Amino acid sequence: MRRPLVAGNWKLHGSRASNASLLGAIRAGLQSSWHLDVMVCPPFVYLAETAAALQGSPVILGAQDASAEAQGAFTGEVSASMLRDVGCSHVLVGHSERRTLFGESDELVARKFRTVVAAGLSPVLCVGETLQQRQAGATEAVIRQQLDAVLAAVSDEDLARGIIAYEPVWAIGTGHTASPEQAQEVHAVIRRTVLARSARIAGELRILYGGSVKGANAQALFAMPDIDGGLVGGASLDAADFLKICSAAAGTTQ
Ligand code: PGA
Q: Is the CB of 172 under 6 A from ligand 1?
């Protein structure tokens, strides 16, 4: 059984005060009987303070990105080992906003995946097609290309450290979530692609769905056999909605 994971991607939101109240409400609402992993990914500047606020709680800490470089003259960058140093265990790589707004290529994303693993952290590799690509019938080809770029660049051992998030670009922040069936279809493609490499890794790999996940739609999505949790943007900024998503992933009916 793969343990569900719900990760909150806060994107470019928050302040010291709002983070403190959000984290307090999440900590207070999480039930110890829920079997799942819960992660928050605040902006870089809040990571150390968030790590301190999460002391003694089961909530784990992720970063939204990391440099592909380990260290050196790269002004403005943050390295994976720095992220580990401040308490992160996971790092998102290849989020569609990084790919489209900041020009990250498949090759760069693959390098980031490797750098994150080399620092002892787990990468959460994001993949997903645009609406135009879906309408052109290219969804499977796009997902395979994004995945293959990473599969070709990493060892089995590195791959086993990763998590994959399927996030259709047309569903991110739009309120138009993929239907559970649409999401399951792509999750199955992802698992089959990894299966061709290693049955063991494919069986253990957690594949999250992201794109307008809300308390109201989480249960139906997580009921699908290859959906192992969610990567949640907007709804992760609302403690009540985020907790509802966590409880759906834990299989409870709160
Ligand atoms: P959303 O974002 O839940 O606001 O659609 C998801 C994501 O981009 O990770």
A: yes
To 10 degrees, what angle do helices 180-195 and 215-222 make?
50
Active site residues: 95, 167
Domain-embedded: residue 254 = no
Domain count of the chain?
A: 1
* Rounded distance from Cα 239 to ligand 1 centre (Å): 15
* Dihedral angle over CA of 95, 167, 91, 22, nearest 10: 110
Query: What is the pTM (predicted TM-score) of this model?
Result: 0.97
Q: What is the DSSP string of 32-89?
A: TT--SEEEEE--GGGHHHHHHHTTTSS-EEEES---SSSSSS-TT---HHHHHHTT--
Domain extent, residue 217, equals 5-249
Determine, yes or no, domain membership for 147: yes
| Chain segment 14-60, per-residue pLDDT in tens | 999 999 999 999 999 999 999 999 999 999 999 999 999 999 999 99
CA angle centred on 17, ends 25 and 85, rounded to 5°: 85
Report how far ligand 1's centroid is from the alpha carbon of 216 (Å). Answer: 15
